[in-house]
Amino acid sequence: MKKYIYKSLFFVLTLVLMSCNNDDDSQSIWLPVNMEIIYPASAASYQTLDISYTNEFLIQNVTRNLSGGTKISYDCAYNDLQLLSNLKITDLPSGEETNYQISYTNGIVTKITVNPSGAATEYNIDYDSNSNLYRYNFPYTWKFNAENNFEYYFFSSDKTLQVTYESGNGFNHFMKSQPALAILDSYFRENFFQDLYFLSTKPVKETRFEDLVSSDVIESHFTHTFDTHNHISKTEIRINTDTNPFLIKNITYQEKKF
After folding, report:
1. S-S: 34 plus which of 107, 115, 227, 252, CB 3.0-4.6 Å?
2. Are 163 and 143 in contact (CB under 8 A)?
3. DSSP 31-44
4. Is the pTM of this model over 0.85?
C-alpha cells in the first residue's frame, strides 16, 4: 500500500514539475490595447482607440471612439506575408463602409482598389527598388527607409511631409511595417501622420510639413515616455516652438502569453 502511495505521489509531483517547466518556457508579449488621445486646448475633441489582435499578434481591429458618441471602426486582414491586404473602414452609427484592397507582388504594393459602397476604383502603384520609393500619378510619392518605416511624402508639386525617428521600440515594433497603411492614411484619409502610430517600428521624433511656395513650415515634435518594458506609454506632441503640447496620447498595454 505504501509503495502504491509513493508511486502516486511521485506521479503527482512529476506533473507539477512539468507544469512549472511549461510555465517557465512560456513567453509573453505586451500589446497596446487602448490609446487615450487628449487635446489640452479642446476638451471636446477627446478620443480613445480600442485595439484588438489576431492569434498571430497582428492588429485585427481598431475602434476610434469620438466625442459625441460616434465611432470609426478599422478592420484589418493580412496576406501570408503578414502584410495588410484589406482595410475596411466603417463610420458608426451610419454604417457607411469603405473597403481598401491591397495587391502585392513579392511583398511590394502594386495596386490599391477602393470600394466605397459598391463603386470600385483601382489605383496602380509604381515602385522604385533602388530608393524604396512608391509613386502614384505623379507627384504623389512615398519614400521608406531601410526598415520600411515611412519617412517622406511628396503629395503635390509644392507640399512635402518628412518624418524622422529616434532609437527604441515604436508603437508597432512587434509587427512588420506596413507601407500600404502609410499610403492609405496619407493619400486617402489625409491624417498626416499624427495618428499613424501603427506605421513605424521606431518612435517618431519629428514630422515636418513644408509648403515649398509659401515657405510655411509646421514641425511636430514628439516627446515619448517609456514604461519598464521599454514601450511607449505616453507621447506629447508640440507644434513648432510651442512649449505646451497640443496633443497627448496615453497608451495602455496588456500581456499576452504564447
Report:
1. 252
2. no
3. EEEEEEEE-TT-GG
4. no
